[in-house]
Amino acid sequence: MNKTELINAIAANSGLSKKDSEKALTATIDAITTALVSGDKVQLVGFGIFDVKDRAARTGRNPKTKEPINIPATRTPQFKAGKALKDSVAK
């Protein structure tokens, strides 16, 4: 499912127009992104938790030359599915 299909599904399930559904989806994604950038965690009970994980700097290897390279520290978003979502998918 891509963004357009998701907007169509939201419109069908909520009774909103496609334009309003797109605004709602965009606002939701923007709010989650803003929270993660500021270091907050977003918890949607039953659905899951969006969080930021800090990855430490480490040494890797260039697969072509086998030379060691330094991989810098970074922050990456992560998602942990909630129990209700896991149970729904498992059925």
Walk me through this protein's architecture.
The protein has 91 residues and is an alpha+beta fold. Helix content is 44%, strand content 30%. It is built from three helices and five strands; from the N terminus they run ααβββββα. It has helices at 3-14, 18-37, 83-90, and strands at 42-44, 48-55, 58-61, 68-71, 74-81. The strands form two sheets. The chain has a three-stranded antiparallel sheet. It has a two-stranded antiparallel ribbon with strand order 3-4. Strand 3 (58-61) and strand 4 (68-71) form a beta hairpin. Helix 1 packs across helix 2. The two termini are 19 Å apart.
Topology:
Layout: H1 3-14, H2 18-37, E1 42-44, E2 48-55, E3 58-61, E4 68-71, E5 74-81, H3 83-90
Antiparallel strand pairs: 1-2, 2-5, 3-4
Helix pairs in contact: 1-2
The count of DSSP E runs of length 2 or more, i.e. the number of strands, is 5
Secondary-structure element series: HHEEEEEH
What does the radius of gyration come to? 19 Å
Major sheet summary line: 3 strands, antiparallel
* Mass-distribution shape: elongated
Helix content class: 40-55%
Continuous helix count = 3
Give the neighbour order of strands across the main sheet. 1-2-5
Question: How far from one another are the termini?
Answer: 19 Å
Oligomer type = single chain
Query: Which stretches are poorly predicted, pLDDT < 50 over at least 5 residues?
Result: none
> What proportion of the residues form beta strands (DSSP E)?
25-35%
Specify the structural class.
Answer: alpha+beta
Mean pLDDT: 95
